[in-house]
């Protein structure tokens, strides 16, 4: 029971790094290799005196590009089912990819609140480049760095406003 937020996004965008920051202790596995978080991780976050559940959706090791995309879409739909709100994470360092577009297509159709988190905005130059993510069409967009913690408070403020 309680309010649940799922973090979704293609592999390597920094979902687990963000998740660990929310939990303020290392729970999920962060790795430079894509698709390393195999299972879903569940945690509880406290912010602004409110408590909510967080799901770090993981990955799965791709066999082929096709299977990869299908499986990721499936994971997104499962997360949407389970959650009250979604944090859709992307990576400012790589920019928009086909998989981001595919996931955005799925997420635009949900009635649940989607917060777009453009991660790896570690410096002002990145912020400039990251504005391309507005084109995915999400109104609730946050530019964050899970590494430095920049912007992570703002997204949590927005999440807790729903509770
Ligand atoms: P996941 O596959 O989406 O769970 O991504 P991870 O959390 O495992 O992170 C993938 C890689 O991105 C790791 O090398 C992280 O250290 C790195 N990373 C995560 N967040 C940031 C960030 O804000 N800035 C930068 N520069 N790297 C990050
Ligand atoms: Mg992960």
TrEMBL record:
Superkingdom of source: Bacteria
EngA-type G domain mapped to chain residues: 3-163
Ligand binding (GTP 1): 9-16, 56-60, 119-122
Function: GTPase that plays an essential role in the late steps of ribosome biogenesis.
Subunit comment: Associates with the 50S ribosomal subunit.
Protein family according to the UniProt entry: Belongs to the TRAFAC class TrmE-Era-EngA-EngB-Septin-like GTPase superfamily. EngA (Der) GTPase family.
Name under which the protein is recorded: GTPase Der
Source organism of this protein record: Pseudobacter ginsenosidimutans
Lineage: Bacteria, Pseudomonadati, Bacteroidota, Chitinophagia, Chitinophagales
